Amino acid sequence: MGIGAGKRVIVIGAGIVGASLAYHLAGKGANVTLVEAEDIASGVTGTSFAWINASHSGPDPIAQLRGAAIQEYHRLETELPDLAIRWTGSLSYSANLDEGPPDIQSSANLISRSRILGLEPNLKNPPQHAVYVAEEGALEAVQATQVLIAGAEAHGAKVLTHTQVVGFTTRDAGVTGVKTVTGIIEADIVVLAAGTGITQLTQTLKILLPIEASPAVFIRYKTQSNLVNTIISSPEMEVRQGPEGTLLAAEDYLGDACENQLMAIALRTARAIQNELHGVVSIEPEVACVGLRPMPGDGIPIVGYLPDIGGVYVCTMHPGVTLAAVVGRLASEEIIDNKISPALAPCRPKRFFHT
Questions:
Q1: Which of 123, 167, 268, 316 is the 20 to 30 A CA-CA neighbour of 75?
Q2: pLDDT, tens only, 265-274
Q3: Are residues 205 and 159 in the same domain?
């Protein structure tokens, strides 16, 4: 148990980040209440491609966090076997991969066409080279969120869905609880893990955090099983195979013109998949939707206590699925053990405030 065991902590937001926070906090003995305005994983988590993608090109302020992401998910698997992560590896390639030397990280994982076809025999147009990261994988984000919340409840956490937070109670420049549509819940610490909804919550405290809603398209198809073995990211498609014959795809949001309506994108992507893969006898869109990813203004996660007001800890990031496990653990150590994490140093909210 942490030195702050018994501390009353309210976590606002029951996506995968909030669920991880609730699980880790409750596991340290905190008195956790998880509050969600709608259903569990009803926000961007429910529309996530859910690639645990720890690779990154170029300078990376959160390299330490990203580097620990996969290890932390393996830890969670031992604690919560029902997480059901599929460690398939990822296969990435682009039109210019053969035009110049790849960066050092990519070079270490560069594989040839013969190896590519060994991994993905259904590819019709395999490239000469691709970057293969064997350690990466994916999970079913909604199911994983439910597993984390069940784990939190097993540690005594209370979960309130369909409970909108409309404000905060304060005393002496500190937050002492949250006002919900059903009443006030008192707290020692309030954790904001509501993704794009954090902006509205902080505005009630007269604090502005630059969190943009970044749209992305998520598509689920019903098709044949065993078309794709890894996670494929190419100029033509970003796909992975889900359970029971589903194929999951991610696409850029291109605006609201007629040709970019969700079903039009889904059908266009389906044709691209058929052009790229052998064995696609039929492919029918089941779900096509837009998820609004919480994108901090500078692209770096926002994790830590708000300045100038006590008792409020913010936790929002992209990629949320990749970082949920590691940030959940580190944030819980900061909140309960007062153990400050150097890995979270670039993420502090205070960078947006000039004092």
A1: 316
A2: 999 999 999 9
A3: yes
At 55 the pLDDT is 84
Same domain flag for 153 and 193: yes
CATH number where 199 lies:
3.50.50.60
Render 131-192 in DSSP notation, one character per residue.
EEETT-EE--HHHHHHHHHHHHHHTT-EEE-S--EEEEEEETTEEEEEEETTEEEE-SEEEE
Q: Which domain holds residue 312?
A: 8-82+140-210+297-352
State whether 193 and 234 are in the same domain.
no
* Token pair for 82: 């029902």
Query: Do 189 and 10 form a contact (C-beta atoms < 8 A)?
Result: yes
**Structure token pair of residue 253:** 């949001």
C-alpha 328/C-alpha 22 separation (Å) is 8
By the 8 A CB rule, do 57 and 47 touch?
no
Least confident range from 26-40, 48-62, 87-101: namely: 87-101
pLDDT tens readout for residues 253-295: 988 888 889 999 999 999 999 999 999 999 999 999 999 999 9
Asked if residue 46 belongs to a domain, the reply is: yes
**Burial of 310 (C-beta count, 10 Å sphere; 0-12/13-18/19+):** middle
Distance (Å) of CA 43 to CA 5, 14, 289, 290, 316: 30, 9, 11, 10, 13
Shared domain check, 303 and 282? no
Contact, 139 vs 321, CB < 8 A? Answer: yes
- 14 and 130 together in one domain: no
